[in-house]
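Please, structure for the following, as tokens.
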Amino acid sequence: MAHNPITVELIRTLDAIDRHGSFAAAAEHLHKVPSALTYTLQKCERDLEIKLFDRSGHRAEWTEAARHILSEGRRILVAMENLGHSAQRLAQGWTTQYVVALDHLLDFEQIVPLLTRAHEDIPWVPVHVRQGTLSGTWELLLEHEADLVVAPLHSKPDAGNIETRPIGTIRMVLAVARDHPLAAVDRPLTEDDLLPYPVVTNQDTARQITPLTAGLRQRRQQLLVPDMSTKILAQKRGLGIGFLPMHRIQQEVLGGDLILKSLASNDQEREMTLVAGWRQGDSDKTHHWMLEHLELLSIN
């Protein structure tokens, strides 16, 4: 079909007739004479060989085809309006969307205050959230799949085009289930104590850059799970041991479902510096707004 008879004028005509109840009222709303609306409708009917209105009775009745065009057409009208607004925002220095990548140590609840304020202050910019693990979180930034990263500094790759800002710390603790054999050991644990038990692990999600390992290393047995929530549940059920972020297991610890343990060695990391990271040179208004509101992240 060289010429598409479904025009914006047709959709607006059908929309006005539906909203105002008659051809005459729709014509007045559109500042046109009724004959102009009739011509628009009849042209579409001729071109598509369909009927938009059944005129066999005393009053013209909508056909199924007309209702279908109106329903789909209204979506087009909304999309066109949004397209115009987004073009204006781009010209003003805003972006069409913004993606925040959270490391697996963090819980979605921690970013809710920032998302809430963004929805209030810059509702025209959709803010999306993605999650990664270890180097994989930073890879989202390097591959332009995210605009801002919130992750531990130690997992940051050696890339010169990333800027960071410290925003808090995360305390990592060794935790076992209440009925795990290690829970009853009343002293700091040694490597020999840990060796018989599987370590619950979140695998690095990096695809291009070198993946990292964290927590208890060089264990003979591992249980790989997809995310931190699953890791917490697996350790709570006694399926293995491992380090967990304290801020995410406070209720389990208070309720006695998880028991905190210490190590005899001092070579394990206890606190991690958490940073926000972004690509050097990013200077759009959305990015500046995000950096100005980083304090809304509920970190410590």
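The mean pLDDT is 90. Residues 170-270 form a domain with the D-Maltodextrin-Binding Protein; domain 2 fold (CATH 3.40.190.290).
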